[in-house]
Specification:
Elements lengths: L15 H17 L12 H9 L4 E4 L35 E5 L8 E6 L2 E7 L9 H14 L15 H4 L8 E3 L18 H10 L3 E3 L8 E6 L4 E6 L4 H13 L9 E9 L2 E8 L9 H16 L6 H12 L2 E3 L1
Helix pairs in contact: 6-7, 6-8
């Protein structure tokens, strides 16, 4: 009688071979996992996370390391900006201007179009399908948008360069926030009939949104009027555990607030950063929240500088805040 084959039976639990197989699988999974902070190393990290996670309609010029087109020569005649030139071309050896956008028509990663001063690339932070390698896909889209011809169909450039090699790492984003998606189309052009319904639905879904600028310049606070209430989502760059500890100290001291009409709603984690969220009275204009915003920022800075163990009340506060925390993918 032939012996029973052991092929495919796998390593025995507890054996050295089982440990080696498990360790190899862990290494493979770790190599495949996205980085915990995909935009780390960029000064604009917090805004990049916001554009990726929850901002509806905004664009910003990208500061690429590669030289771009020269500034247009000034003349005494005023140019006609009502529509881009149909013949605008990129000079040989010069890249396109590239803008970062929240989302593009059809949720495509990138497109290039004619603009008044030459070809213009647009790169989306929110795409369909979701990329497995976020930073790699974004770098490929930027590289393609910088060099493709207008109206070309997007094809990944398979760049070997990372975002920190493509972008000026010290540059912040000069954001323009919109209450619709009119920027999808160059000035003077009509909405294509085949996407008119989708365009209208997209516009109808946008809620009033504003990027606030605290005195400290730390993080990216975004205000949005959601209807019955407004919200403030403050993307913070600090280490998550340190920030959570500071929030717990403030909660125990009754300082986890932006003032009258505000309520701490919880926090969520996305792209390696923690985002405290406040519910706000939407009867107040977003600029009226600056005093409370800056006061809370000062309190938080003080709490971040504190050392020593948490008190019993602070530990309870931390447990309560963590219990309401969610993670956005």
């Amino acid at each position: 009688m032939a012996k029973k084959s052991k092929r495919g039976s796998g390593p025995r639990p507890g054996s050295n071979r089982a440990e080696r197989v498990a360790a190899r699988k862990e290494r493979q999974l770790a190599a495949m996992a996205p980085p915990p902070r995909p935009f780390a190393g960029l000064a604009a990290e917090c805004d990049l996370v916001a554009l990726r996670a929850f901002v509806a309609s905004a664009i910003a010029d990208l500061a690429l390391v590669e030289p771009g087109p020269a500034e247009p020569e000034l003349t005494s005649a005023l140019p006609d900006d009502s529509a881009p030139s149909a013949k605008s071309q990129r000079p040989k050896g010069i890249r396109n201007e590239v803008r970062l956008a929240t989302i593009l028509p059809g949720a495509v990663p990138a497109l290039v179009r004619d603009a008044t001063n030459g070809p213009e690339g647009l790169v989306a932070m929110q795409t369909d399908p979701e990329p497995a390698d976020l930073t790699g896909s974004l770098a490929e889209a930027i590289e393609w948008a910088a060099h493709a011809e207008p109206d070309a169909e997007y094809a990944p450039a398979a760049t070997s360069r990372s975002l920190t090699k493509l972008l000026d790492v010290d540059a912040q984003l000069e954001l323009v926030v919109y209450d619709d998606f009119s920027w999808w189309f160059p000035a003077g052009t009509d909405v294509p009939p085949e996407i008119a319904d989708m365009f209208q639905r997209a516009n109808d879904s946008i809620m009033p949104t504003a990027r606030l600028n605290p005195k400290s310049g730390v993080g990216a606070p975004w205000w949005v009027d959601a209807g019955e209430r407004a919200h403030l989502r403050w993307v913070r760059p600090e280490d998550e555990d340190d920030l959570m500890t500071a929030l717990a100290r403030l909660h125990a001291a009754d300082r986890l607030t932006l003032g009258e009409g505000s309520r701490f709603a919880g926090s969520f984690r996305t792209h390696g950063l923690l985002v405290p969220v406040f519910d706000l009275d939407n009867e107040l204009h977003h600029e009226e929240w600056y005093p409370g915003l800056d006061r809370f920022d000062e309190w938080l800075t003080e709490a971040m500088a504190q050392t020593g163990d948490l008190s019993t009340a602070e530990l309870r506060s931390r447990d309560g805040i963590r219990g309401r925390q969610v993670t956005l993918r």
